[in-house]
Amino acid sequence: MRNLLSRRAQIGASLALALLFAAAATPSAPAAGNKSTPALEEFQKTFGGIKDYQFQIVTHETTDDGKHVEDRAYLFRWRRPTDAQIMVLAGRDKGGAATWHGGDTVSGHHGGFLSGIHLTKSIHDRDTTSLRGDILTSDAYDSELQHFTETAGTLAEATGPAIDGQTTTAVTLAVADPKTNANVSKDVLFLSNASHLPLGRDQYVGSLLVKTEKFKEIKTNIGLKDDDFRG
């Protein structure tokens, strides 16, 4: 009996050891929605050292059917942890501004003769979003990083076009389910090879380019104050 128990113990130990080696030899699956590319990793690393920034955004966007078009320009500001502001420099509601301090609402005002009336609205309200419904923080660096690394789909990177004299790397997200992404099936972020920050972004619904953006006059760690984020 003692020999039988000893033999069973040896078999059990051998089986456990075999299972341990098998588990070690099997690569673990990556966490769902957690993916990156070398250029995105450089972007993430650079963003880690940025406390605040501002840049201009020049946009051209259309509806899915291409029948409605909107051209606008903005000044965008951001400060850790949750301060953001966008001011319309050209296009619909020129002179308008909206400020966000976290949460689901923004405060601000329209342009023109209504500029003296300050309002609080949903961050998804028509007055605070673009033609395609993009919210105020869509182009914030943390939002872009989260979108490209967590949206279900596949990532690829390749040499991008020169933008304002700077070479770029194009990071392309092929979206798994466009219906969950405002019908956008392909999203391309153009990252500067010098600063590692975005210089442009293109979005497609199928083969139709529905939104193109250029980011200009980028300034980081400029010491933005509370007064720069008044609603």
Attribute tags:
231 residues, alpha+beta, outer membrane lipoprotein receptor (LolB), chain A, 11-stranded antiparallel beta sheet, 11 strands, 19% helix, disordered N terminus
Topology (SSEs and partners):
Layout: H1 2-25, H2 38-47, E1 52-62, E2 69-79, E3 83-90, E4 97-100, E5 105-109, E6 118-122, H3 141-150, E7 153-159, E8 168-175, E9 186-192, E10 198-205, E11 208-220
Helix pairs in contact: 2-3
Overall description:
By secondary structure, the protein is of the alpha+beta class. It has a single domain, classed as Clam (outer membrane lipoprotein receptor (LolB), chain A), CATH 2.50.20. Helix content is 19%, strand content 38%. It has helices at 2-25, 38-47, 141-150; strands at residues 52-62, 69-79, 83-90, 97-100, 105-109, 118-122, 153-159, 168-175, 186-192, 198-205, 208-220. An eleven-stranded antiparallel sheet has the order 6-5-4-3-2-1-11-10-9-8-7. Helix 2 (38-47) packs antiparallel against helix 3 (141-150). The model is unreliable at 1-33 (pLDDT under 50).
